[in-house]
Amino acid sequence: MPGLKFSSSDEIFDYLMRFVNIEKGQATELKLDRMRSLCSLLGDPQLAYATVHVAGSKGKGSVSVMIARILQAAGLRTGLYTSPHLFRWKERISLAGDEMPEAILLGAMDEVLPLVEGKKAEDFPGDELPTYFELGTLVAFCAFRRSGCETAVIETGLGGRLDSTNVVDPAASVITPIELEHTEWLGDTVAKIAFEKAGIIKPGRPCFLSRQVPEAREVFARVCAERGSPLREMDEFVSLEEPRLDKSGTCVRLRLDPAWPQAERFAKPGGGERAGGRVSLDLRSPIVGGIQAQNMALALLAAAEVEPRVDRAAAEAGLAAASLPARFQILELDPPVVLDGAHTPASIRLTLETFEALFPGPKDLLFGCAHDKNYEEMAAILAPRFDAVTVTRPGSFKQSDPRRVYESFARRSASCSLVEEHGEAVRAARARAAAANRPLLVTGSFYLCAEAAIALGAADPQPGQR
Asked: Are 142 and 42 in contact (CB under 8 A)?
């Protein structure tokens, strides 16, 4: 409609929802020609600032916000693009995790709207309309340009090689651990998935790599060699002491190898905090979990190499400010409820390990996941460890088959129930846990965590946003 205008970011979200396809399970080929064309028409906003591009199967959201907060603490105006959102769409486009001004988002949408409003599929490369994620990514690129960002941390949505974000020209690429996920899109082996993630590695630009299984590391090393990209492996430059966890966050001591050119920047004046020639650095993040120690190390390495102003003070302040909802988020109820969006077997194992360390003894579980997740393996990990299990639908945004998930858990748990409506399931699981004085873990889906937070009064409902 001519002259269409938006008055809020919620209205932008409602408009973008007209273009939902892949996230609803509808067949659409992954490709970049349409995204490149749209970016060009907008004057390539993704090239208006330095970027750090982050991919991986687990931990990429945490690493992204950590890098963004460190860069912000070093004095840079820093954009952050992540997904999914939990409560409101505008969470995806922020200033290092702080809210992006509404006027900036509205102005960015004003730039994007003329490219799609009133257009037909045949007006675009590939004869398909842009996707929800493509348009949201374009809005983010334009918002960061409009807000005067000097740098931006961009998290991939799906894979890497053909992900809509892979039109950036990053100063560095960062890849977190790889495991089997989205196999219908990315391939049915770890090596195939690693190849897709390796698509964000750019010629001559450094790639920062977390600990990887051998078949994934082999792919990344080969691609870096082929593209002349310096490979920066976390364990090459950083050693970690055993992290210390409590219910308020994660603490770890890093020891930086003097062979890393940036190590001296983190030494205390006078040469203190050294052992065996290595610079020691004590860091804390409010994100709870043993894996967060590795995430902090990876984020520190990437941020420091990209920006010379990153020093000890910026690292400490940035990581202390880095947080994300539904990453082992503890709701201070009695007994407590933990929200964690883990949805792969490896991430589920890590979540369970942290949960049992902080809440030893009897415990309850509320679980729901999308239909394309490996619920059989997750059920095998979780079901035997909980005194009561409730299975539900994770929400309405992603396709799910809660009955089949329930059957997987019921074969392994003597106390398992199916409550398909997620709001009712949250209330039932919470009531059962409270009656037995047992902590409750809500996991399997970020969407389920959002519904649980709303149902338990930990977040305000946003009509139309879920």
From this structure: yes
> Which stretch of 6-10, 220-224, 264-268 has the lowest confidence by average pLDDT?
264-268
Contact between residue 247 and residue 338 where contact means Cβ atoms under 8 Å apart: no
User: What is the pLDDT at residue 25?
Assistant: 44
The CA-atom distances, in angstroms, between 290 and each of 120, 246, 250, 347, 358 are 49, 10, 7, 11, 11
CA angle 223, 227, 228 (to 5 degrees): 115
Give CATH 3.40.1190.10 domain extents, the chain. 9-236
| Per-residue model confidence as pLDDT tens digits over 57-90 | 889 999 999 999 999 999 999 999 999 999 999 9
Which residues touch 168 (CB under 8 Å, ≥6 apart)?
46, 47, 51, 53, 154
Per-residue pLDDT, 199: 97
Which fold would CATH assign to domain 329-455? Protein-Tyrosine Phosphatase; Chain A (3.90.190)
Rounded to whole angstroms, what are the CA distances from 311 to 91, 98, 156, 240, 267? Answer: 28, 22, 27, 18, 9
Convert the pLDDT of each residue in 191-225 to its tens digit. 999 999 999 999 999 999 999 999 999 999 999 99
Domain with CATH 3.90.190.20 in the chain: 329-455
As a whole number of angstroms, the distance between CA 123 and CA 140 comes to 23
Question: Domain 9-236 is of which CATH architecture?
Answer: 3-Layer(aba) Sandwich (3.40)
Q: How many residues does the chain have?
A: 466
